[in-house]
UniProtKB/TrEMBL annotation:
Residues 16-266 form the DUS-like FMN-binding domain. This is DUS-like FMN-binding domain-containing protein. The lineage of its organism: Eukaryota, Metazoa, Ecdysozoa, Arthropoda, Hexapoda. It comes from Chrysodeixis includens. InterPro entries: Aldolase_TIM, DUS-like_FMN-bd. PANTHER family: TRNA-DIHYDROURIDINE SYNTHASE, TRNA-DIHYDROURIDINE(16_17) SYNTHASE [NAD(P)(+)]-LIKE.
């Protein structure tokens, strides 16, 4: 397959991944200024994109500096996907089909990684989109546990008309606390089998990881998601000073506005080491409730004022006993952008075992106020107020049919799920399953199943791959 179109966009090696609520124009431009040579839009839902003018106008935002650019769509209808592609044909260099999203919303919507077993449908989608537009159609996929099936999957997409393939070296089940290590061995096998341009995704936390991946897998380029969120200058090979890179990002947001939730998310990730320190709780709270650029700039200014003397060497910075006692491993000073490293699936399992043995108190989403009572979110507060307005005889329905019953957890007034095995609302059921390693088919919460699959897969990863990725 010809590399002509890939050559025409400069054979990009340093690629910023498509990320929902995190790949907006301001962020793409920031990454481009610090070494990125190709960016993607966030994933757009093809059905909504074709029907909702406001959705298109608010999300498909670009400019002359924002090239080369690939627009990513999800969906399962060939005609709708083709129509969506036609709408953006003149604003980008290629259009990608998202076949890698592993989240539950993708399962409910039947798109992303949950189409990876429907090869006949995928062939129709690739063909329909390729015939509808004059620019290349690309695909982003996750691997199967079997290397052979992963290779066959890639060859099928290439034959269907895919012009570039991005392979995320994790299975559909590897996500969240069970993410684990991506298999570069799978990526290498796919690279050796296909003849179209190919990008690798997974285990990229520094520019050294980029070059090791290029050398081992022989792919044409490397994509980063989590790594670049915590350090936008990753491809430049530097660890930025947080307030400098944040200020540059905020200036771009002022020029190319985006929702405050996007900005808040980016700042939390770039400041993530700063906010592990209790001394910065006030600034963390300001960021959590920030509503405009001035609020975000205030946080940035406060952090700079506090740590600039340390950065300039006027004051010597040393980890205090509180930091060491909590186990924070600060190889770099906390005001420097650095990777966020997830715990391994094995560590996650061990943590659960300790929780179940009552050796530690569960930390998941539990906040205690000065009276010792759990705090609740604004959303739950609204539900509580609504429940208090219900007729007082609602309690009588507990012993009738399940319609109208309330969660059995004390002080929880949410309605229970009709099919819940534990007679709980979804929130309480999710907490119970997480802490006790259970499944609840009624709520479609499969914590135990996914943990088992992730652990099984992590044990099957070849030792050579682990050596390469360490």
């Amino acid at each position: 397959m010809s590399y002509d179109w890939f050559e025409s966009i400069g054979r990009p090696q340093f690629v910023v991944a498509p990320m929902v609520d995190a790949s907006e124009l301001a962020w793409r431009l920031l990454c481009r200024r610090h070494g990125a040579t190709l960016c993607y839009t966030p994933m757009f839902h093809s059905n909504i994109f074709t029907k909702d003018h406001k959705y298109r106008k608010e999300n498909m935002v670009t400019c002359d500096e924002d090239r080369p650019l690939i627009v990513q769509f999800c969906g399962n209808n060939p005609e709708i996907m083709a129509a969506a592609a036609k709408m953006v044909e003149g604003q980008c260099d290629a259009i990608e089909i998202n076949l890698g999203c592993p989240q539950s919303i993708a399962k409910r919507g039947r798109y992303g990684a949950f189409l990876q077993d429907e090869w006949e449908l995928l062939q129709k989608i690739v063909k329909a989109m390729s015939e509808a537009v004059s620019i290349p159609i690309t695909c982003k996929v996750r691997i199967f546990e079997s290397i052979e099936k992963s290779v066959d999957y890639a060859l099928m997409l290439q034959k269907a008309g895919c012009k570039m393939l991005t392979v995320h070296g994790r299975t559909r089940e590897q996500k969240g606390p069970l993410t684990g290590v991506a298999s570069w061995k799978h990526i290498k096998a796919v690279r050796e089998a296909i003849s179209i341009p190919m990008l690798a995704n997974g285990n990229i936390q520094s520019v050294e990881d980029v070059y090791r991946c290029l050398e081992y897998t022989k792919v044409d380029g490397v994509m980063s998601a989590e790594g670049i969120l915590t350090n936008p200058a990753l491809f430049e090979g530097i660890n930025s000073v947080t307030w400098e890179i944040v200020q540059e990002y905020l200036d771009l947001v002022q020029q190319y506005p985006c929702p405050t939730s996007y900005v808040r998310g980016h700042l939390f990730k770039m400041f993530h080491k700063i906010f592990t320190l209790e001394e910065n709780n006030d600034d963390r709270q300001i960021l959590a409730t920030a509503q405009n650029l001035n609020d975000f700039r205030t946080v940035c200014s406060n952090i700079k004022d506090k740590y600039l003397p340390y950065h300039e060497g006027k004051i010597i910075y040393e980890n205090d006993e509180n930091i060491l006692r909590k186990g924070y491993d600060l190889i770099l000073p906390p005001w420097i952008c650095q990777p966020y490293v997830r715990m391994t699936p094995e560590e996650h399992t061990q943590k659960l075992e300790k929780l179940n043995a009552n050796e530690h108190v569960a930390e998941k989403r539990t906040l205690i106020d000065e009276n010792g009572d759990p705090t609740i979110s604004k959303k739950k507060m609204r539900r509580l107020r609504k429940s208090l307005r219900r007729p007082k005889n609602l309690e009588k329905n507990r012993n009738n049919d399940r319609h109208g019953e309330i969660c059995v957890i004390k002080k929880c007034l949410n309605p229970l799920g009709r099919r819940c095995l534990f007679r709980l609302c979804k929130k309480c059921c999710k907490d119970k399953c997480f802490e006790e390693d259970l499944d609840c088919p009624g709520h479609r919460i499969l914590v135990h199943t996914r943990r088992e699959m992730a652990i099984k897969y992590s044990k099957n990863i070849d030792k050579n791959t682990e050596i390469v990725t360490n």
